[in-house]
């Protein structure tokens, strides 16, 4: 089960990261900009600041902290990653993709504004992520900032999230087998979670061994996140049984839970948490919060 202390930690963290994200959307002298379209900024604020668990920035900051990284820098990199994650949600909700009206308990950006503005707000958030990491205010050595930009480009790009989304859309016509599902999920949702954990090691300037260990931890977390997400879809579909749409009925087909069953999924979640726990054992008590994070991801209810 999830510890109440961990949930409090995550909520407190969400309050800590909020002003950092808000700051990214306010005009500063350094950027040399003359003007910004106010309605576009409003739409970006709507997509970025309206709730969310802030799990990815939490992982950046906690993995950096485990390895002695600079906290203000980790907060900025975490905020950048949340900009990129929020962009993916804004675009995923568009009529051409998942066509959702609600996100994080509020109307989606294209409902609250309009479709063209939602596309641009997503583009703006994506670009802002890289601006934020590269900017000198992210007080890290040049090498670390370049490594972060490169790692995030790869996690978010054609070999990562965007490629995974394309495979997912293709899977609607041509159902993939187990291996195909694992690959597409590792790309679509796993890559950003893995980046979050490796970012902490890059920020801390950690040795290759720690980097590899945290990448692996991020991979395990990504798998657990996706299986938990598939289980949540099934339980939420069961809750709305009778008024299920065609889209709802399709869910589960292209997932590991759909292919291997709920009992397998529950056992696999426990196995992934165990593997994450032993992976982090060299760090002793310092890694406790990351072990709690793995348990939270496996057992989350939203
Ligand atoms: C449109 C380029 C593009 C990519 C979309 C990540 C993604 C790819 C789409 C999101 C669709 C979706 C609901 C995937 C399931 C996993 C997921 C990313 C859920 C949302 O993440 P949470 O639970 O959300 O961390 P919060 O709101 O807490 O940030």
UniProtKB/TrEMBL annotation:
Cofactor(s) the record lists: Mg(2+)
Domain of life according to the entry: Bacteria
Record Pfam families: polyprenyl_synt
A GO MF term: dimethylallyltranstransferase activity
InterPro entries, sorted: Isoprenoid_synthase_dom_sf, Polyprenyl_synt, Polyprenyl_synt_CS, Prenyl_diphosphate_synthase
Gene3D superfamilies: Farnesyl Diphosphate Synthase
Keywords: Isoprene biosynthesis, Magnesium, Metal-binding, Transferase
Protein EC: 2.5.1.1, 2.5.1.10
SUPFAM superfamilies cross-referenced by the UniProt entry: Terpenoid synthases (SSF48576)
Protein family membership: Belongs to the FPP/GGPP synthase family.
Protein name per UniProt: Farnesyl diphosphate synthase
Originating organism: Rhizobium halophytocola
